[in-house]
Design brief:
Elements (H helix, E strand, L loop, with lengths): L4 E10 L4 E6 L2 E6 L1 H4 L10 E5 L2 E6 L1 H12 L3 H12 L4
Antiparallel strand pairs: 1-2, 1-4, 2-3, 4-5
């Protein structure tokens, strides 16, 4: 199962190539934020984004991110599998 998981932008790793470090439940990985950089508001440190296959797809507010994470955590194994896949991913 592939999920879009909320994560918080904690570092802009390579702005020229649209790469940011995002924290998802303590797992920090680089993701491409290029889809959001093209929007008028862009993406900034502290923003919450939905991540799928290494790309930030949209921004969400903190309340929505918390509600989504709570729902996903309730899925148990499916969510744990997604976190494991995220741990193993590498975008540099």
């Amino acid at each position: 199962m592939c999920l879009a998981i909320p994560g918080q932008v904690v570092e802009m790793v390579d702005p020229d190539n649209h790469i940011a470090k995002v924290d998802v439940g303590g797992v920090r990985r680089n993701v491409n934020v290029g889809l959001l950089d093209e929007t008028p508001e862009g993406v900034a440190l502290g923003d919450w984004v939905l991540i799928h296959v290494g790309f930030a797809l949209s921004k969400v507010d903190e309340e929505e991110a918390a509600a989504t994470l709570s729902l996903l955590e309730g899925m148990g194994e499916a969510f744990e599998d997604e976190l494991e896949q995220l741990k193993e991913s590498n975008i540099s």
